[in-house]
Design goal:
This protein has helices at about 25-35, 50-55, 60-70, 90-95, 125-135, 150-165, 180-195, 205-215, 230-235, 260-270, 325-340, 345-355, 360-385, 405-420, 455-465, and strands spanning about 75, 85, 110, 175, 200-205, 220-225, 230, 240-245, 275-280, 305-310, 320-325, 390, 400-405, 420-425, 425, 440-445. With about 475 residues, the protein is of the alpha/beta class. The protein binds pyridoxal-5'-phosphate (PLP).
C-alpha cells in the first residue's frame, strides 16, 4: 500500500458554466484524468466536499456525487468521516498505462491492440518458477544448450499443445524462440535460402509481421480474407509456396477460417507442395465455444505451428515456440543458431516449471473470464454510444472492429480520437497492396479495466461525433 499523504489543498479544476456537460461530470472527468496521468498520486487526500464545493462555487452535492462515482470506479477510496484519497491499485495501473509511449504522448485511453492486461501478470507464480529455475538449473543448463531449446520445456509445451490445441507434436520438432515474429523471421530466412522470393499473408494481417519478413529480403504478398477467412481460390492463383494464416482468429478482421476453407487450404498445400504457417497467436481466448483444433494437427508435415506467450502472459518475456515439419527443423534451427546461438535457458526452465505446476492453465482460465466480461461491456457500450457503426469479430481474442465506411473516415476518426487523448488503430495500418475489404477502428479491451470501459467508449463516441470530451 502507498503511504497516506497530506491533504491536497490546491487542485486545478476548471468549471465551465457554459459547457454542455453537467458540473458534476466536469469535476469527475478532470479528477479521473488527473489520477490517470499521475498528477494526483496514490494515497493523496482530496479536499473535503465542503472545501472543494466552496472553491469551485458549486453545491456540496455535486462534489459528493463526483467523488462517489470515482470511488465506484476504484479511483478513490472513501472512509466514513474522512476525506477520500486516491486509491493505490487502479491509480498505479492507470499511471503505468499513461506512461509516455514511443512517441512521447500520454493517452487518456489506450485502445490499441498491443498487450494483454499486464497488471494481471502472475508475478508471484512466475517469480516462484524463476527461483526454482535458478536453484535447480544444472551447470550444463547454464552453458550452450541445445539450439532448439531445453528438452524439459519442449516436452511440457508438447503436452500442453496436444492437450489444448490438438497438435500433432513430437518434442524433437519443437523450437523455442523469442516470439512469433522471431520465429517468422527465422522461417523467412530459411525460405529465402531455399530460393523463395515471396511469402503470402492474409490481407490484412499484422503489419509487424510484414515488416519483419520484408527485412529478411522476402516480399510479402497479400491474399484477400472474407467472412470465411482466407480466400483460398486467390491463393491458388498466386504462385506462392508458403502462406501465413491465423485460422483460429484472424488478425485483425476477427473471423475464423470456415471448415471447408480449412480443407481447401490443406488440399492446396499438399497439391502444390507448399507450406502453411499457422499463427495461433491468441487461440487461448475463445469465449463462446472451444476453438477449432489447430490446422497443424491435420497435416504436421505441411504446417508450421507458431505460438507465443505475448498475448497469454506478457510480450516482454519474449517466449515463443514453433512446431516444425521435420524437413524444416534443421534449416530453421540453423537460422536461430546463426542469429542468437540459443535462447536464454533460465526463462525456459521457469516456463517449463510454470506449465508443469498448472499455472499457465490457471492464468489463461482466469484471464479468459475477465476478457470475456470486458468484451461484453465494450460491445454494450459501443452499441449504446455508436449504434450506427457495425461491429466485427467472433467472440474471441482481445480486440474487435468498429466498422467505418472507408479509409477517409478511418483517418478522421483516428485524428479525432487522438485529439481527445484516445489511441486506436485502423484496419488500414495492417493492409498490404490491393486491399479492398472492410475498414474501421481496432478497439482492444485487454488493457482497460471494467469500470473504465463505459467512460472510455463514451469519450471515443464523443470524439468520433466531433464533440469535445473535456
Ligand atoms: C497477429 C499476431 N501474431 C503474433 C503476435 C505475437 O508476436 P510476438 O510473439 O513476437 O510478440 C502478435 C502480437 O501482437 C500478433 O498480433
Amino acid at each position: 500500500m502507498s503511504p497516506r499523504r497530506p491533504q491536497v489543498r490546491e487542485l486545478l479544476i476548471r468549471i465551465d458554466g457554459d459547457a454542455k456537460a453537467p458540473l458534476g461530470r466536469q469535476v469527475e472527468e478532470q479528477l479521473r484524468e488527473a489520477i490517470r496521468c499521475g498528477r494526483l498520486a496514490a494515497g493523496e487526500q482530496l479536499p473535503s466536499t465542503r472545501m472543494l464545493a466552496n472553491d469551485l462555487a458549486v453545491s456540496r452535492g455535486v462534489i459528493a456525487r463526483a467523488y462517489g462515482q470515482l470511488a465506484a470506479e476504484g479511483y478513490l477510496a472513501v472512509r466514513q468521516g474522512a476525506n477520500p484519497y486516491v486509491a493505490p491499485l487502479l491509480s498505479q495501473q492507470a499511471q503505468t498505462r499513461a506512461q509516455p509511449k514511443e512517441n512521447g504522448r500520454r493517452w487518456r485511453f489506450d485502445l490499441r491492440p498491443e498487450s494483454p492486461d499486464l497488471s494481471q501478470f502472475p508475478r508471484r507464480q512466475w517469480s516462484r518458477s524463476l527461483q526454482c529455475a535458478l536453484k535447480n538449473a544444472s551447470d550444463r543448463e547454464l552453458g550452450y544448450i541445445d539450439r532448439c531449446g531445453l528438452p524439459q520445456l519442449r516436452r511440457e509445451l508438447s503436452a500442453y499443445l496436444a492437450r489444448v490445441r490438438g497438435a500433432d507434436v513430437d518434442p524433437d520438432r519443437v523450437l523455442i524462440t523469442a516470439g512469433s515474429t522471431h520465429t517468422l523471421t527465422l522461417i523467412g530466412r530459411a525460405l529465402l535460402r531455399q530460393g523463395q522470393t515471396r511469402l503470402a499473408f492474409e490481407n490484412p494481417s499484422h503489419c509487424l509481421l510484414h515488416t519483419m519478413v520484408r527485412r529478411t529480403g522476402l516480399e510479402p504478398t497479400g491474399i484477400p480474407v472474407d467472412d470465411d477467412g482466407l480466400v483460398v481460390d486467390k491463393l491458388e492463383q498466386s504462385d506462392v509456396k508458403c502462406v501465413v494464416v491465423s485460422p483460429a482468429h484472424q488478425f485483425p478482421l476477427g473471423v475464423a477460417l470456415a471448415p471447408e476453407r480449412r480443407m481447401q487450404l490443406l488440399e492446396w498445400a499438399k497439391r502444390s507442395d507448399c507450406i502453411l504457417v499457422e499463427d495461433d497467436y491468441d487461440a487461448e481466448f475463445r469465449y463462446d465455444r472451444p476453438p477449432a483444433e489447430c490446422l497443424q494437427a491435420l497435416e504436421p508435415e505441411r504446417v508450421v505451428y507458431l505460438g507465443s506467450a505475448s498475448k497469454s502472459l506478457a510480450p516482454a518475456l519474449r517466449l515463443g515456440w514453433a512446431i516444425l515439419p521435420s524437413s524444416l527443423v534443421e534449416p530453421v534451427s540453423a537460422e536461430l543458431h546463426a542469429s542468437t546461438l540459443l535462447q536464454p535457458s533460465l526463462e525456459q526452465l521457469a516456463f517449463a516449471d510454470f506449465l508443469a505446476r498448472g499455472e499457465f492453465d490457471r492464468h489463461v482460465h482466469k484471464m479468459r473470464a475477465s476478457y470475456q466480461r470486458r468484451r461484453d461491456l465494450t460491445i454494450t457500450a459501443l452499441q449504446a454510444e455508436l449504434p450506427e457503426l457495425p461491429l466485427r469479430g467472433i467472440a474471441a481474442g482481445l480486440n474487435l472492429i468498429v466498422e467505418l465506411p472507408g479509409q477517409e473516415q478511418e483517418e478522421t476518426a483516428l485524428r479525432n480520437a487522438a485529439a481527445a487523448g484516445i489511441a486506436v488503430e485502423t484496419v488500414t495500418r495492417h493492409t498490404l497492396a490491393g486491399y479492398c475489404g472492410p475498414r474501421g477502428l481496432l478497439i482492444s479491451f485487454a488493457e482497460i479495466s471494467e469500470p473504465t470501459i463505459p467512460h472510455a467508449i463514451r469519450s471515443l463516441a464523443q470524439a468520433l461525433h466531433g464533440q469535445s470530451t473535456e
